[in-house]
Design brief:
Blueprint lengths: L4 H19 L8 E2 L2 E9 L8 E9 L2 E7 L13 E3 L3 E5 L1 E6 L9 H10 L2 E6 L4 H13 L6 E7 L5 H14 L3 E4 L4 H14 L2 E5 L7 H7 L3 E3 L24 H8 L2 H4 L2 H13 L3 E3 L11 H5 L4 H4 L2 H7 L15 H23 L19 H12 L4 H16 L16 E5 L14 E5 L2 E5 L2 E6 L2 E4 H17 L1
Parallel strand pairs: 2-5, 2-6, 7-8, 8-9, 9-10, 10-11, 11-12, 12-13
Antiparallel strand pairs: 1-18, 2-3, 3-4, 6-14, 14-17, 15-16, 17-18
Length: 489
Amino acid sequence: MKNVLPYLLLLTILIYPFNFLKSQHVGIENAGKYDRFLIKNVMLIDGKGTPMKGPNDVIVEKNKITAITNTKTGKDAYANEKHFIDGTGMYLLPGLINNHVHIHERPNCTLEYLYKLWLACGITTVRDVGSDIELTLADRQKSQMGYLTAPRILIYMVVRNKDIKGAIAQIREFKKMGADGIKIFGMDKEVREAVLAESHVLGLKVAHHVGVEETDARDDIQYGTSTIEHWYGIPDAALIGSQNFPSWYNYNNENDRFRWAGSLWKEADPVRLEKILKGMVDHHVAWIPTFAIYEANRDLQRAQTQPWFNEYLHPTLANYFSPSPQNHGSYHWNWTTTDEKNWKENYKIWMKAVKDFADMGGLVGAGEDAGFIYMMYGFTYIRELELMHEAGFHPIDVMMNATGNNAIILGFEDQIGRIKEGFLADLILVEGNPLENLKYLYPTGITVVEDGVVKTKGGVKWTIKDGIVYDAVKMLADVKQIVEEAKNK
């Protein structure tokens, strides 16, 4: 008997892998890349502004969607599929596109933290508008090749030269480096005009982070900017004269800057504002408002005590958020109830302007700008979608802003942002209907009562980027571990 035991042990070891492989025939149990897999019996929420439909079966081959069929009428068509995800009770959406991010590697906080947070929140594409170019270019390549656990990365490189000759030389260099677009801010008008002209010649899209500067939305309309980021520049163009700044106001003091920004929208002339919005529509200037990044201004306590901070906020980021003149966006010292009141009024007018712009036919996209002002990566993007709903967008249109519209803004509308045959397989499976409650998109889920039982429901369960399947739940668990280890250090 003793002589037989080693052979039995060896036989068990040899058989085990085959049993494991056999288990894979009952579904996709692990993240990875599959030549072909099925998502079965799932409800579809497309990114084209139409209601939910289903149940449907979706076939993915390599990195593309190759078939979408009705589950009931074709129930036997995919009975023998080797790899599948059972989507029963889940909702399939296009991968979320985050059109305003900064890929910042901070001390003791690696980019793994950012990337896994985004994937856990169902974000499959990000548009970087300011980072370490060399690092981000390398990660873009790794992500494209499937070597890096990260969303698809597009890079808009920041033009920092302030003279015409230097700025044009920089743009041409960016083109050679493989930029997907450029970002501009704080330019004199003549430099801005030359930069826009050169960008059009090179086929580069232009994102304008407007501040209190010489140029505003009228220049974006005239010279052909692709997107206006945030909200400065639009109400400025509708002012009668200058904003009513006090004599001691210092724009470079962010406490001054953001305190008085809270009065900007109510000083804008409504008639002029309507003309500016119409001009943006007519000249195809899109708008990415980033409502969420400024929410601390209207409710500081809410921003400082977000429920996911305890387990998922990296201590490096928490330290950066603490009020300090040294850190961009960390300006909340001496913040008053009056400041919050002004910002609440600001939001009402701002949100109405964004909704009016969309109702006129304007293109609205979604982005987070996280990493500043108490806003975490990924979670802030979901909050952005909630605030779009607050602004008056139907949840169907909110999802269109996050997917189909964002794809158009990027110039990728024939590849991503839709659940459509021939499109790239950028998809997410969510437990719970986001059209019923956008909070279902938060990776931590929400508390519900079903059949008398209190439980947690919601969150993205699978994130599929370029045909690669990621376990979104595991991504969030990895982030939690990263934070725990950082706290222990």
